[in-house]
Known about the structure:
Blueprint: H1 2-5, H2 8-25, H3 33-36, H4 40-43, H5 45-53, E1 62-63, H6 72-76, H7 78-90, H8 106-110, E2 114-120, H9 126-131, H10 133-140, E3 145-153, E4 158-162, E5 169-177, E6 184-188, E7 191-194, E8 200-203, E9 209-213, E10 219-227, H11 233-245, H12 262-283, H13 285-305
Antiparallel strand pairs: 1-8, 2-3, 3-10, 4-9, 5-8, 5-10, 6-7, 6-9
Helix pairs in contact: 2-5, 12-13
Amino acid sequence: MIAHILRPEYIVVATWLAAGAYVHYRGKVRHPLSRQISDHSTVLAPVNCFMYFFSGVPNRPYVERARLPELDRVRDNWMVIRDEARALYEAGHIRGTERYEDAAFNSFIKKGWKRFHLKWYGESLPSAKALCPRTLALLEETPAIRAAMFAMLPAGGKLVRHRDPYAGSLRYHLGLITPNDERCRIYVDGEPHVWRDGEDVVFDETYIHYAHNETDTDRVILFCDVERPMRYRFAAAFNRWFARHVMPISASRNEAGEEVGALNRVFPRAYALRLRIKAFKKAHRKLYYVIKFAVFGALLGLVLFGRYL
């Protein structure tokens, strides 16, 4: 009996279910269970639980900024970064994409959010090197910064509740051109932070977070993914391996001719299918959920009992 329970496929499924449950119940703010089951944070739940367990910083929505002193140089040069961001913003370079080549941020772009990628888990983008060299120099002097962009949340804009998929990084925001107003803020696990010029914050983006800009002024920030400190070398090595070999699949571009990751090369077709699925859900909501849970049940059954088929 014990040998039956300890079969590899049972252990894999039990681990994934336990990790998914932990991710779901980790914070005060949660998705409906029907959404969490298919959320990308559930897919990566075992990896993320590894990151949480061996994290070198407390597992809280906001991380004390002093724990990441390597970011001081970036913050201290915020006006240099702001000037390059302002030039890009005024020239229209901070924008969305019409080619569905930014899977990680596509839902935000549809709401009016705009971005200009600087680097994404690898080399800096050529357009960023040409248009904002001083910002790129500061980023390259800060190895902990794995990804960076300028991000604009328009006046009246909002970002819906979501988790980011990967816990091996922490999110860093530096206010550049902001309304400096309490009505322009982000909530992480229900706790608010107001963006202000020259002020920065670090938070765990795998908690549910959302944002509102209820002013009449656009907000522009420096948005970075920073390597999560880990308690042990083997954990840090795995984190770096994952960031180097897996995360680049979601790389996007600013201009034609720049490289895009594998995920974004297939995303246009996947998004077209997603639109059809959403239309079906709208027209046949109950049937949609019956099919959704039947598919998940069938996949689970295939993993557990496939050898008997």
